[in-house]
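Lab notebook, page 48
Experiment: co-folding of the full assembly
Goal: obtain a model of how the components sit together before planning crosslinking
Operator: M.T.
Materials (sequences as entered):
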Amino acid sequence: MTAVIEVTDLRKTYRLGPLAVPVLNGVSLAVERGEMVSIMGPSGSGKSTLMNIIGCLDAPTSGSYLLEGEEVSRWGDARLAAARNRKIGFVFQTYNLLPRLSALANVELALQYGDRRNARARSLQALESVGLGHRYKHRPLELSGGEQQRVAIARALVKDPAIMLADEPTGALDTRSSAEIMAILQRLNRDQGLTVALVTHEADVARHTRRIVSLCDGLIVGDEPVAEPLRAETAEEAPA
Amino acid sequence: MTPLALIGTAWSSIGGNRLRTGLTLLGIIIGVAAVIALMSIGRGAQEDITNRIESLGSNLLYVRPLDGDLTLDDALALVDPVFAPSVVSVAPEVSVSGSVTYRSTDTFTQVAGVTPEFADVRNFEVASGEFISPAHVLNRKNVAVLGSQTAEDLFGERDPVGVDIAISGIRFTVIGVLESKGATAFGNEDNRVLVPLTTAFFRLSGQRTAAGDLTIDLINVQADGERIEEAQQEAATVLRLRHEITDTDDFRVDTQQSVIDALSETTGTLTVFLGAVAGISLVVGGIGIMNIMLVSVTERTREIGIRKALGAKRQDILAQFVTEAVLLSIGGGLLGVGAGVVASRILDGFTLAGSELMTVFSGDIAALALAVSAAIGLFFGIYPAARAAQLHPIEALRHE
Ligand SMILES: Nc1ncnc2c1ncn2[C@@H]1O[C@H](COP(=O)(O)OP(=O)(O)OP(=O)(O)O)[C@@H](O)[C@H]1O
Ligand SMILES: [Mg+2]
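Observation: model returned without errors.
Model output:
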């Protein structure tokens, strides 16, 4: 198996005027194709910072990041944008949907900046695969939090990415909606072999993945496989 | 993104806030409409003047004294088949101002002494009655031909032919009324009164040179067909010989064209000036666009972050906001052209400070105004768009 993500001695230091705030202090991590990993750690330990760098949304201060074998830290704006568009599906804790657009238009938005062929049909298909095919006309505010997050997953999915990154995707959801989200992510990982890396605070959520990486003060302090991954409720798995 | 998708996106975000969009558009609409209305007034004035002068006949020359005198003999000397073969005929004139009275109505106006040639040379026709005849001139008759305006002022609807009037207290009989010509190169000639040249000399003005010659104010010269420049040369040569001039002329010979050129240069400057004044309001409209775009970028920081996270490049974001700005300015420009055309239609024939406005709208004015407004949208849209494009995706996403 080849590593899809390989970071080596990654450091990130924020500068607040004269003050240097070290957030990542030399993180090395490799994620293989088809893995499902969760990253845990106390608040402020640098989880989001790490995810943003892996998601090509932010640049490290130093260190190396190989995405599918290519060194990302040398890329300019256009290549980073292309990587965000084609290789990475990013799901945020706060969904980040455009409130003015329908669910379908939100999913289609991801295709506007890349491969636009059959955009409408592919977007509908992505919505169907998260069980929201019938809600495509609705705007985000007309959907529940769990449904909005599923639209966001569909939007990440429609680009057929190499990896799916999720920063606390269930952080704002109740247990039932969390279970639905985890069921979808598990299914994508299991059936389509999609590489999934997610950040979570909840041990319960982490136990649905197959490997848990622990972060503390910008360093990896633990990296263990999950002996017996839980299987999420599959009630919502059947496409509606 | 494809251009079509860009326009669609821009359209939907412009449509998202109708009131604000409307007010922003208004700035551009007013600017473009003002440019069009004012420039068509300028063009109208230009065309009006040119038309009126050309209606006098294009083969006219005007000889005027500069700092010497022109005498009746000078005028008569210009009809000379040997030295001035290109001159067909001349019409000398003297003018005095005087009060013209009919019963209790009187008006103060220009009284010109002319010869029968005047009607031909200057293209005047009588609307009723007859023009001054050689016999009238020869016998210094107290007869007058009224300009259409003067006739109306004194007589209203009645026919003045055959009626007696007083000019500067002297009795004259009205023998004819001229057709209306409107304002000409010499101002409004419809309110003049024409009398025989000799009558004007001996009864009304009586200016003479030191040598006792009769002085005149203007010689209208009719050139033979297109030979205007030759006639100008010949007339000047004859007068130089007669005046024994070695260096500077004490008269000047203007062609109809030089009068038109001088006047349209002035009105051309006026048109550009009017357009520039209106252009300032267009710039103000552009600043309005910039203002609204900056607000829009701030408001939509999160949207920009989302788009970047989904793979929008800097230039995609730049293009999106520039498209919005240009769409606003072109939209405003198109509506402004409509408003400007309507405004110039309404202003056409509108009486302002006693004179009638004439407006001429033409496509090039509209194209110019549209191009300028599009350029203004581009210019004032680029800075806000560049600010949007430079946003860091993570910081943009954190923006509330
Ligand atoms: N732009 C920034 N400027 C300065 N400091 C920052 C900036 N962004 C993040 N930090 C700091 O970096 C540290 C790590 O932040 P990060 O968001 O990665 O933590 P996290 O592990 O995701 O925490 P949480 O679980 O609360 O989401 C925090 O102490 C935060 O204050
Ligand atoms: Mg975080």
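Interpretation: The interface with chain A takes residues 1-2, 5, 12-13, 16, 302-303, 305-314, 316, 392-394, 397 of chain B (CB under 8 Å).
Next step: discuss with group before ordering constructs.
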